[in-house]
Amino acid sequence: MHQPQGDTPVEGILRHTxxxxxxxxxxxxxxxxxxxxxxxxxxxxxxxxxxxxxPFPPEYRGNxxxxxxxxxxxxxxxxxxxxxxRDGINATHNLTCLIADSKFARQLQLVLLQGIALAGFNVVxxxxxxxxxxxxxxxxxxxxxxxxxxxxxxxARVPGGAxxxxxxxxxxxxxxxxxxxxQRVGLSLEDAERVIRRLAVNGSVPEPLRTxxxxxxxxxxxxxxxxx
Length: 228
What we know:
7-stranded mixed β-sheet; 9 strands; archaeoglobus fulgidus dsm 4304 fold; alpha+beta
């Protein structure tokens, strides 16, 4: 998944997806709330979406459910559902389409992700997602990832692992913020901490991510499970 020299992050997403033309049409016809200058978070965002994937057996190699929980402040406003390939390359494309095609696209001010990869090692191009959607992206994890182990695993056994590691390394190491660790594009560390403190009302994880985790678990196994 090499990005040709001169490609912008947006062009990279469009070039390396299985359905470039439909995505171009979707984005061309959609007036997102922050077209023009990228929004900053001078105030706590009122409309946020949090994405998490469903659990799956280690031997599974198909599509994995992904849930987006849309919140208006601390109220669940709606749910998006999609799929991404286990260890694939379509996470950025599919998240972009889920958001851009939804009725919530005009109101969303922030995207939260429970980790930089979905469905194993289907790595999200956080910079590209931000450049396409024109809203800040915040990755939240409970514990500091062992990036050395991630790199070894990607390069040793994951197709396209070098490109995926490049996307991870580009963001730099996760930073501590409000009891968790974050990676971010389009917002300051201070903004990230404020968002987490406002939205994490039932533990250390922001409510949109906690809710997406619960729903995704129930879709896969019949009931929510694991720590939330």
